[in-house]
Amino acid sequence: MGFLDYDWCGLNWSRWVKFESSNRNFKRIPDRQGLYHIKPVDRNILSYIGETTELKTRLRTLCLKILEPEMPFNDPHTAAPGHWAWKDAENMEFECSYVPNPYMNRADQRGLECYLLWQYRLETGESTLLNHGRFHPNYIKSGNRSSNRRGGRIQGNNVNPSSGPSHPPLIIHSKPIDKDWMRLEWSDMEQLSSENARKVPASYGLYKLIDTDIEDVVYIGQSRYFNARLYTHSQKLIDESRMAFSYYKFENPIPQHQLLEMENDLIGAYYSENKKSPRYQFLNITSFE
């Protein structure tokens, strides 16, 4: 089973480390930059794939938060509430495997994370239990600590919509700048300007920004109102003369987690071809926050 192999995606994954209150199992984990994935014990599925600058600290924090008596807040680890919910509902226990990756720049490591998430979707037909905002059907997620809003079990017969099915994984096809990339029907490229952004329909969709000088995708995004997102990009970019955009519009609304899944598939596919992230994808710069 590919995603459980120790050489999955050409990486050197560690042996599985069980989440326990004792610090014994975590002593051998290096506190270095790297990637990790988590699975329920005795289950052949993944619950989460992540990346970090401090493997030991990040994984130990997640372990301890899952073991708390109340659902933990969304910070410092966004995956803690979801793992807590699955543990509370089904008495799940978890274990992790990791791969140190100290020499890759952080933006490209995040692109590699997207690639792993996409590969998992291709192998299984669905996403991990808790990436892309997915959650347990019978629980509501905690907010950040500053909100003081803890989640917990949903009363009655209501179901968390973030527990819905995954969108089918996108299949590699064509080149990122092409109109049929990933078998989606992308619009014609237009110059990124406030005037052109205003003409775009207000709809759920995916979009890509293209540097026409080098004919390469430099940013991939999603939004429920992607015309407004494009307008924001056009206002914040200093030099928009060489920047173009293209979009894929959904005819009907889709769940937020499915939008995020498809955005991730696109970034993962770009990484697969280029072995790097789109230039502006994960940079902490004003134009693309």
Judging by the overall fold, what is the CATH architecture of the largest domain? 3-Layer(aba) Sandwich
The CATH class designation of the largest domain is Alpha Beta
Strand order of the largest sheet: 1-4-2-3
Mean pLDDT: 94
Number of helices: 6
Summing up helix and strand content along with how strands pair, one would put the structural category as alpha+beta
CATH domain topology of the largest domain? GIY-YIG endonuclease
Largest sheet features:
4 strands, antiparallel
What is the end-to-end distance? 37 Å
The helix/strand series, from N terminus to C terminus, equals: EEEHHEHEEEHEEHEH
The number of E-state strands comes to 10
- Integer tally of domains: 2
